[in-house]
Structures are given as structure tokens and as C-alpha cells.
């Protein structure tokens, strides 16, 4: 992906207006991004997560907030596959981000048959197109790790990572995907007598004193992540991730990282965070010029956040909790200078620029010009005349008095403009996610961006 000049029209985001609070057409996904339809993407691929298929009657989730329509999820997968196959830009593969079947399948002793049903749903429509699977907590409710490694949900070469399931592959020149196993360190999918089970339960008991390790009662903020349906990754996988990111950086590649569990507190409910999210996030921030996005599932409401290092954190809403006549999947279009994540139904549309250091580079160029001007107009004459710094500085007080405040003012204006655009974009995502209808429903921090 080559760096190209961005114009003001391409990056500006208009603040929301009162007319935007009208009820949107439920069949049309709302997007703030318009692209030139004459430009074809280099490649496209599909994104889907939290299907939770089961041959079981609909029922409420464990907190009684959303109805899970188990059988209907197969119909939504079929709809998504037909959309991908018959779209203007056919996809090359699909990323399935975990929880393909529900834990109720294990209770009903239908894990194998239900898995075959939903895999057949992909196969009969997509034919030979590859589907890459990563494992969520519900895969580990139904199967042991060894069963998963020997089954159809093993999508990567695990000779060096077994029993963990992580890997990487090149999407196209200069873009690769890195898939993490966010349950490598967890109490799920392993025997109760295993070492990793004992260490995981010890960590949970240290932070969560409730009788049930899945009960977050009494936990506050980020501490709510210490429940049994979450997990973490070990130092072995951290080191592997660092090696992959280093290799990508050296080859001037961009990277999309995927995992079932989100890693940024602002992109999900704190109840659905990776146990050692800070460790992973700190590593991605070291390679902020390489990593474009982290895409996850797990939190069924979904979420989005662009962090301080310009890494986009996208949490996809669940298929299984879609209302009738809607869906939840996305198509990623890869262009030479950006990614367009085109959502359908519950998922909004996002644009990820691949040259997010453009403004920094331009600022450095301006700084270099100022330095050269200073050397030519001030430093060299002073050195050649042999005059004292104090005397020469007194003659150039206007340069200091006027130049420095002007430079500071210029930087503040540019920074404020970029912050405004980022927050306006964030508000648009927030509005679409919660389907805000009235201005009084807007959170206080977003009201300055409404006209």
C-alpha cells in the first residue's frame, strides 16, 4: 500500500445535524463514507462473528437483555454468503471470528451435528472459497482443544503453536492478517487437572471472589474482565506476535490483527476484555505504523474506537442477536491507500487510511524548511560576523515575539481541527450504533459536535 496525498475533501467529516436524527431506513446501512465507484479494490474479503448456531428454541442470553435466535442465525449466514458471492466485488475469503456454535449444543449433545449444519451453510454457497476460523469461548464449551486442532475449525499450521491456534497469512502484497488465540491461557477447553486450568482459576480467584467464576458482581471497571468466559495469551504467543510484526515492519507491510476477545476498553464492554489486554495493546502501539486495526467479536453489542496511536479497534455485533429483517456482517475492500469496511445491518461502515502519518510527515517537512531558513537568515550571518548571541538576539526580537506565538497558534489550529474531525466521526459511529433518534439522547461529551 503506497502513500498518497490526501485532500481536504477526502478526509473531512461533517458534523451531524438535526436532520440526521430522523429514523433511518432499516434496510439501508448508514455510512458517512463515499467512494468513487469507478475505482476497484485490490481485493475484498468477508467478516462475520458470533453466529452461535444451535438447533434449539430461541431464548434470552444469560443477563436477560437480548433474545438469541439460534436457528435463524443459519439463515443470516446464508444471506451473508449470497451477498458476498453476488456482490459487485466478489470476495476472496471469509474471516469467521469465533463462537460459530453455541454452548447449548454441548448441553443438548449436538455439538458435532450442529457444527456440520453451519459449516455446510458456508460450503454450499461459497463453494471452494476459504473460510478462516478463530476460536471463541463457545467452541471451547463444545470441544477440547485437541478435538478442535484435529477438526474443520483448525485454519492454521499449529506445529509450533499447538495446543494454541494462531497464525498469519498474506492477503495481498503489503497487507497481512495476524490471527490470535485469545483463549490460549484460560480454563476452557482443557482438563480440570491441567496446569493451565489451575493457573487460570488461580488468577480468577485472585481478582474475583464470587462463588461462580462467571459472575462479575462487585467488580468495577476493567476488573470486570476477570470472568471465566474470557481468557488471555501467554508470553510465547506475545513473542510470536512481536516477531510477526517486526517482519511486517521490515517488509513495509500493513497488518490487520484479529482475535475473538477485544483488547481496548473503549471498543467493548469491560466485561468482555482480554485478561492481559494491556500487554497486547502496548505491543501493537510499538508497531503503530504497521498495525492498521484490531478486529474482534465476543461483545454482542459491538463497538468501535480509534486509539491514540491511530489503531482502529472494531468489535463486530453478534449474528445470533439480530432482530428480524436485519443482519450483521461486513465486507472489507482493500484499496492501495485505505481499507473500506462496508457493514451491513448492525455494522456501520468504516474507512481506515493506510497513510495516517501523512500529516506528521508534512509537519516535519515544514519544520525542516523553518530550520533551513533559520540557518540561512540568522545562524550563518551571526557566525560570520562573530557577534555575541545576546546582541544578535536583541536585533531579532520581532522574529521571536511574532514567530513563536504564530507557530504555536498554527499547530493548535491544526490539532484542534483533526481532533474535531476524529470526534465527529466517533459520534457518527456512536449514533448509528445506538440508533439515536432525539438530540436530548446525545451524551454530553458529544453535544458540541451537533448543530
Automatic annotation (TrEMBL):
InterPro entries: Calcineurin-like_PHP (IPR004843), Metallo-depent_PP-like (IPR029052). The chain crosses the membrane at residues 397-415. Keywords: Membrane, Transmembrane, Transmembrane helix. It holds the Pfam family Metallophos. Residues 1-17 have a biased composition (Polar residues). Gene3D superfamilies: 3.60.21.10. Residues 1-25 are annotated as: Disordered. One of its GO terms (molecular function) is CDP-glycerol diphosphatase activity. Residues 45-301 form the Calcineurin-like phosphoesterase domain. This is Calcineurin-like phosphoesterase domain-containing protein. It comes from Rotaria magnacalcarata.
Amino acid at each position: 500500500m503506497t502513500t498518497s496525498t490526501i485532500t481536504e475533501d477526502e478526509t473531512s467529516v461533517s458534523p451531524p445535524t438535526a436532520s440526521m436524527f430522523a429514523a433511518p431506513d432499516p434496510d439501508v446501512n448508514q455510512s458517512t463514507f463515499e467512494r468513487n465507484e469507478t475505482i476497484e479494490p485490490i481485493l475484498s474479503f468477508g467478516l462475520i462473528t458470533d453466529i452461535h448456531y444451535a438447533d434449539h428454541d430461541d431464548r434470552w442470553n444469560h443477563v436477560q437483555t437480548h433474545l438469541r435466535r439460534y436457528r435463524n442465525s443459519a439463515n443470516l449466514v446464508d444471506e451473508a454468503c449470497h451477498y458476498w458471492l453476488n456482490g459487485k466485488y466478489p470476495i476472496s475469503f471469509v474471516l469467521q471470528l469465533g463462537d460459530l456454535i453455541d454452548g447449548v449444543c454441548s448441553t443438548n449433545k449436538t455439538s458435532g451435528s450442529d457444527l456440520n449444519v453451519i459449516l455446510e451453510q458456508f460450503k454450499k454457497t461459497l463453494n471452494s472459497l476459504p473460510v478462516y476460523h478463530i476460536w471463541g469461548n463457545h467452541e471451547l464449551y463444545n470441544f477440547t482443544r485437541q478435538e478442535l486442532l484435529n477438526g474443520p475449525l483448525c485454519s492454521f499450521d499449529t506445529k509450533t503453536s499447538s495446543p494454541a491456534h494462531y497464525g498469519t497469512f498474506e492477503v495481498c502484497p503489503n497487507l497481512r492478517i495476524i490471527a490470535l488465540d485469545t483463549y490460549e491461557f484460560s480454563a476452557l477447553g482443557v482438563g480440570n487437572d491441567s496446569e493451565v486450568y489451575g493457573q487460570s482459576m488461580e488468577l480468577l480467584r485472585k481478582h474475583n471472589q464470587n462463588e461462580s467464576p462467571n459472575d462479575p458482581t462487585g467488580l468495577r471497571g476493567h476488573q470486570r474482565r476477570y470472568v471465566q468466559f474470557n481468557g488471555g495469551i501467554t508470553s510465547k504467543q506475545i513473542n510470536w506476535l512481536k516477531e510477526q510484526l517486526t517482519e511486517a515492519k521490515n517488509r513495509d507491510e500493513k497488518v490487520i490483527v484479529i482475535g475473538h476477545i477485544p483488547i481496548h476498553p473503549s471498543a467493548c464492554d469491560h466485561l468482555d476484555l482480554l485478561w492481559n489486554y494491556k500487554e497486547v495493546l502496548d505491543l501493537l502501539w510499538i508497531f503503530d505504523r504497521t498495525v492498521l486495526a484490531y478486529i474482534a467479536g465476543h461483545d454482542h453489542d459491538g463497538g468501535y474506537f480509534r486509539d491514540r496511536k491511530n489503531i482502529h479497534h472494531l468489535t463486530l455485533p453478534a449474528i445470533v442477536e439480530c432482530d428480524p429483517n436485519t443482519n450483521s456482517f461486513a465486507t472489507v475492500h482493500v484499496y492501495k491507500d485505505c481499507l473500506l469496511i462496508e457493514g451491513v445491518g448492525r455494522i456501520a461502515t468504516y474507512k481506515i487510511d493506510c497513510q495516517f502519518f501523512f500529516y506528521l510527515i508534512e509537519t516535519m517537512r515544514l519544520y525542516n524548511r523553518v530550520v533551513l531558513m533559520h540557518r540561512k537568515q540568522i545562524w550563518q550571518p551571526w557566525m560570520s560576523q562573530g557577534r555575541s548571541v545576546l546582541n544578535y538576539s536583541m536585533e531579532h526580537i520581532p522574529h521571536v515575539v511574532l514567530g513563536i506565538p504564530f507557530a504555536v497558534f498554527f499547530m493548535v489550529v491544526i490539532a484542534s481541527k483533526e481532533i474535531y474531525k476524529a470526534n465527529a466521526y466517533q459520534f457518527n459511529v456512536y449514533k448509528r450504533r445506538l440508533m439515536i433518534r432525539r438530540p436530548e439522547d446525545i451524551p454530553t461529551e458529544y453535544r458540541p459536535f451537533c448543530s
